[in-house]
UniProtKB/TrEMBL annotation:
This is Glycosyltransferase family 8 protein. The lineage of its organism: Bacteria, Pseudomonadati, Pseudomonadota, Alphaproteobacteria, Hyphomicrobiales. One of its GO terms (molecular function) is glycosyltransferase activity. Gene3D superfamilies: Spore Coat Polysaccharide Biosynthesis Protein SpsA, Chain A. The keyword Kinase does not apply. Keywords: Glycosyltransferase, Metal-binding, Transferase. The keyword Repressor does not apply. SUPFAM superfamilies: Nucleotide-diphospho-sugar transferases (SSF53448). Transmembrane segments: none annotated.
């Protein structure tokens, strides 16, 4: 059984469905996939496509509503306040996977819901991790992630060391379970912690030297049409240029629409237009 974790809410049900479907379509054995979907409540009409993955491909789908318990809230409270507000706190699930997955889970793939898997995921899931805790791809704009405005260095990171994107991570869960992330950042000054980029900074800081660097094709970030020639294994639409916006210029845009299926794609696109209009009205 291959364990895969996604986290999203109603705002990302469409891309979440597309990511799960892409994993099944390109898997050599979709019945061996077990999805753990951690969410903060899904409307019935948004939950239905996610659950249909089981019937359509034989994969196991386990949905966990985080609002039904305080398993996440209590743990987040132990972390310092971070000034950034763009990301949903649900991203912190990645730090507690060892506690939130079945006890027999040895290895897990965490994957963001804004991805498109194009090649058999078994090639990644079965790789030799060489004793490392996480296998991941370098962050392309790591200099900016590390240093921020005017590239002023932070004490927690050095631009001479690797910094990894947390959107696609193969995790050795047995080793991961031994990590105490709260203790790992406890010595940092408050002014440094306030600048942290949520769990991605925490992972890179606490697990320094414990990452295995993957080929960039396993997490091709912000892919444009020119990147199609590289036959990326996983596309990661992590910028504001998303494949559901008609003005976006991204790799495999037409294929992505059919991946989500026309019916779901156009319903999701209409929802995003409404959200965009509401945001503009608030700004006005």
């Amino acid at each position: 059984m291959h364990d895969i974790v996604l986290t999203f809410d109603d705002n990302f049900w469409g891309p979440g469905y597309a990511t799960m479907r892409s994993l099944c379509l390109t898997s050599r054995d979709p019945k061996s996939l077990r999805f753990h979907v951690f969410h903060t409540g899904l409307l019935p009409e948004n939950r239905a496509p996610i659950e249909s993955i089981a019937a359509d491909y034989g994969a196991e789908v386990r949905l966990v509503d985080l609002k039904e318990s305080d398993i996440l809230g209590g743990r987040i409270a132990a972390f310092p306040r971070i000034r950034m507000k763009r990301l949903n706190p649900i991203v912190y699930v990645r730090l507690f996977l060892a506690e939130m997955l079945p006890a027999e889970t040895k290895r897990v793939l965490y994957i963001d819901a804004d991805t498109f898997v194009r090649n058999p995921i078994e090639n990644l899931l079965s790789m030799d991790m060489q004793g490392k805790v996480i296998a991941a791809v370098l962050q392309p704009d790591r200099m900016h992630c590390i240093a921020g405005t005017d590239l002023r260095a932070r004490s927690a990171f050095s631009m001479t060391e690797p910094y990894y994107n947390a959107g696609v991570m193969l995790i050795d869960l047995e080793r991961y379970a031994r990590i105490d992330f709260v203790a790992g950042i406890s010595a940092l000054p408050a002014e440094e912690l306030e600048q942290f980029y949520y769990d991605q900074d925490i992972l890179n800081y606490v697990l320094k030297g414990q990452f295995l660097e993957l080929d960039p094709r396993w997490n091709m970030q912000n892919p444009e049409p020119a990147h199609e020639v590289f036959d990326p294994h996983i596309l990661h639409y992590s910028s504001d240029s998303r494949p559901w916006w008609p003005w976006s210029r991204v790799a495999f845009k037409r294929t992505y629409r059919h991946l989500m299926t026309n019916a779901h794609f156009y319903r999701y696109q209409r929802e995003q237009y409404k959200r965009l209009v509401r945001r503009w009205l608030r700004l006005g």
